[in-house]
Amino acid sequence: MVFPALDVRFAARALEAGGVIAHPTESVWGLACDPFNRDAVERLLQLKNRPLAKGLILVSGTQADFGELLESLDLEQRQKVSVSWPGPVTWLVPHFGRVPPWISGAHHSVALRCTNHPFTSALTRAFGGPIVSTSANPAGCQPAREKYQVLRYFGDELDFIGGGTTGGRQSPSEIRDLVTGRVLRAG
After folding, report:
1. Secondary structure (3-state) at 31
2. Are strands 131-135 and 29-33 parallel, antiparallel or unpaired?
């Protein structure tokens, strides 16, 4: 997959400045922001018309970015997560108060995914850590699968729209609860 390297730098700078951007993921376009910037997260939620209580997914191109959250897990749990990453599996992991409430919402777990999408992976490396990533669509609308759909939904309300294309998967990432083993969304 080819995308301009300059797009990664511009996208990372926009995140660092508190912006909300759009980027391609494995199956759909996502909206992203700095997870530790409350104003950016609130703006993202407002754009999507998504309630804070639902929580958000943290995405990175490297498992090391989730080190503190994964170190609390037992060996079997860490292995279960590791064999599925990088890839389109999102795990709900107990956060033990290590993430802000505007990320976890009303939950005692946080959603984590280690992506293998080239643009998103490069973006998290350039940004220096995980990002919030949620489908690029207002609540109740179909997720954007093409850049033109992102523009149709959000117009000039975003600070940057990344390059490249989605990874071509037809279904969104699978969501699994690490503690219960339940699959909350098939992938």
Report:
1. strand
2. antiparallel
Residue-wise pLDDT tens digits, 87-146: 999 999 999 999 999 999 999 999 999 999 999 999 999 999 999 999 999 999 999 999
Three-state DSSP class for residue 151? helix
In the chain, where the domains are located = 5-185
CA angle 96, 99, 101 (to 5 degrees): 100
DSSP letter assigned to residue 155: G
> What predicted TM-score, i.e. pTM, was given to this entire model?
0.94
Q: What is the pLDDT of residues 40-92, one digit of tens each?
A: 999 999 999 999 999 999 999 999 999 999 998 999 999 999 999 999 999 99
Angle, helices 118-127/5-16, rounded to nearest 10 degrees? 50
Nearest to 179 by CA among 87, 85, 74: 74
Q: Which residue, 102, 107, 118, 128, is CA-closest to 36?
A: 102
Which fold is adopted by the domain 5-185?
DHBP synthase (3.90.870)
In order of 44, 53, 135, 149, 164, the CA distances from 24 in angstroms are 16, 25, 10, 12, 7
